[in-house]
Amino acid sequence: MGWLILLTLLIEVGVLLYLEEKAWHTLYTPLNFLMLPYVVILLLTVSVSGKWGIVDFYYPSIVYWNAGLLLFAIPSYAMGFVLQKNNKPIGRPIDDGEGMPDIVVVLSVIMCLAFLYRLKQTLGSSSATFGTDEFGMDYDGHGLWAHLSKFNLPLLILCIYYADRRKWWLWIIIITLVFITFIHQVKGWVIIPCVTGLAMRLYSGKTHLTAKFLFFLAIGAVAVFLVSYILSLVVGGNAMLGGAILEFILRHFVHYLTSGVLGFSMDLAAGMPDKGNMDILFAQFVNLTNVLTGNDEIISQVNGVFFHTGLNNTNVRTMFGTIAVYTNPGQFIFVTLLLSTVIYSLKVLSIRFGNIYLNIIYFFECAMLCMGWFEYYFFHLDVIEVPVMTLIVMTLVLLTQTKQHET
To answer: What does the alpha-carbon distance between residue 208 and residue 52 come to, in Å, rounded to a whole number?
Structure first.
């Protein structure tokens, strides 16, 4: 029965992939960003479950993804086919002007220098060791520096988008911005802006989807994980880099990839002991409202229920798993349709205007969907903050360009 459920999902994904291409004539759509990485991670999880001490996989958890993907596809096909029926464009190149604006380079250098200064400051004041989660929190985990760190993300995305072999200096900025992001020790927020920039390059034709690209993408993903753990274990924990450490990192790499799928599998098999309120899915909006109205209550998005997968503890549940945990069936349908409608509306707007900054916002949301195999990322403040920071960058660029034209 388990393999039948898995086969049903694979057939469903194949059909949805075909219909998505018919609706939008491109591979780079929200639904594809969501479902294709999940299928890869799901197949990996199924292949390792029950081996090397890893728990068995609970196949009925796939059913929530069956339902979720079908619901998520409804706004996609509705908007795509309506545009086609009315002879409206369903695709448009990204309008990136005449190249990378000088002000973006200036802002990127300023932010790199500011955060390197902040690193020096934190090394002198923090009791935590560099490379640990505690050091990352002291570095930019709260206050002004936490908000400024979000300003780095659209700058990093723009640098990745405009990068080429001739702009060697741009690679120094990219590496520095990625390093700065690494210090916080949250792998997802290193991966998401990088995926955003790469997705924009693929969509615009600056980079082509080839076996070579996928190979280096996989190498890059592994590197993110390796560097993160080398920082925390070798630099932060004073461990010696050797066979035992590399084996430990490998086990944690497998755990990281499978923790969302196995986390929801174990959660559902246990009867969802972490069942909660739908407010958590909109935590950033609830918390902002509470702050503005003087209410001290702050909702935490961290799931307090952990399961041990045989490799390590996990409290992540995949995107649709987390939605299921905090909703009833009717609310599950509402949240999924709402999320899909918002993101596909951003897609339509990006097609309508072609503006590169609107595309950053749209592809940033797609990159968060791409991490749906791990967790539901849309209850974080970044969903609001990164678009706001992107619009600020756009405003600064427009003001600078207007001033240049006047002179």
So the answer is: 38
Handedness of CA 54, 60, 64, 65 (dihedral sign): positive
Q: Quick: pLDDT tens for 151-200.
A: 999 999 999 999 988 888 899 999 999 999 888 867 788 899 999 999 99
Give yes or no for a contact between 278 and 327, defined as CB atoms under 8 angstroms apart. yes
CA separation for the pair 297, 291 (Å, rounded): 8
pLDDT tens sequence across 30-80? 999 999 999 999 999 999 999 988 999 999 999 999 999 999 999 999 999
For the stretch 16-27, pLDDT in tens is 999 999 999 999
Contact 114, 155 (CB under 8 A): no
Q: Give the dihedral of Cα atoms 243, 247, 250, 252; nearest 10 deg.
A: -130
For residue 58, what are its two tokens? 């609970």
- Cα(174)–Cα(161) distance, rounded to whole angstroms? 11
The string of pLDDT tens digits covering residues 203-242 is 999 999 899 888 888 888 888 777 777 766 655 555 565 6
Distances (CA, A) of 337 to 28, 212, 297, 331, 340: 19, 36, 28, 10, 5
